[in-house]
Amino acid sequence: MKYVVVIGDGMTDLPLKELDGKTPLQSAQTPNMDFIAKNGSSGLLKTVPEGMEPGSDVANLSIMGYNPKKYYTGRGPLEAASIGAELSDNDVGFRCNFITVDEGMLADFNAGHISTAEASQLIEALNKSFYRFGKFYLGTSYRHLFVLNNKDAASLNSTPPHDVVGEPIFEHLLKPEDHPFSIKLNELMQKSSDILTKHPVNKKRIDEGKKPANMIWLWGQGTKPQMPVFKDNYGLRGATITGVDLIKGIGTYLGLTNVHVPGATGYYDTDYCGKVTFALEALENHDLVFIHVEAPDEAGHAGDIQEKIMAIERIDLRILGKLLEELPSLGDFAIAILPDHPTPIDIRTHTSDPVPYAVYSPGCESDDTESYDEVAVEKSFKNSSKELMDGYQFLKFFIKYSSKKIQ
Ligand SMILES: [Zn+2]
What we know:
alpha/beta, 15 helices, 8-stranded mixed sheet, 5-stranded antiparallel sheet
């Protein structure tokens, strides 16, 4: 049996007046998603446990079959794994953003999407000046890592910079403010400003009218998570296909193969067809592939309805369409479509609301859901005796569902 789980990041939404009260998923042409819902089984899934932030890390960990309440330690350590930084048991990995500060305000959480080449020079300068504090690792664009060798720092309260854009820096520094590590690291953030402001990379950016990366922001810290390997847990050889470091980081801890797809960008322009080609190839020596597409989430954050609809239609046509065409030649197969969390256009950020899933395997039970969208799946769910499933139980359900042939 071959399994494919297609994750449209942030794909679900709320009704929009611009779409006459429909959601982007309802408005998009999605014949393949609808086929899966109609001929398979659908329902609602709670991917973000009560009391946790609706981050892509938490939600995707759920979908990949692991309870975030039990295994999630922070975003930093997941990203560390994806960039090849190995954490010791006493290390704490912080996500380190390059940000733009303007008159004490957090003006931009991504420093004008600074390039990795520019960031590389800045990371080098930071390591030269602050080697006594800890070590900086280069990631991609504005997303990097800082590692401190003392696990006590894991308990600090940190703030995601994208949540406080336009607000004063000093209000959102690490807390509690009198904790020895808060004092040390808040000082590090402030001092980074001196080094970065006068760096030639930033002088050039300002000259070119771009936003300078004039401060670092530390957040999302945690110690190395201890998670049982996917193969031991599910008895399946798994792989990931994604353009996003975070998902690769989860894959690394779970012992999944992170398949590199050259055109996977984690943005609108990602190579959808390339993802399927590499997924089908991976299925030759794996049992399950997670195909993750970031584009609908990016459109949600940007509040761009047309890009969101386009991303959904591309997932439908180029990924699901191709898979439904090609998978039968590999023998018995099962396919799933779902988002990790909603990223509603009107809110421009993630929510914790339950998400609709649909699964299909030829010859298995069908509950005849009209189409794959928020409204149709909820309606079919309410008319059934199904219960709201915890996200981390989804994979077990999917495997069980496709093992029961009724025809
Ligand atoms: Zn997400």
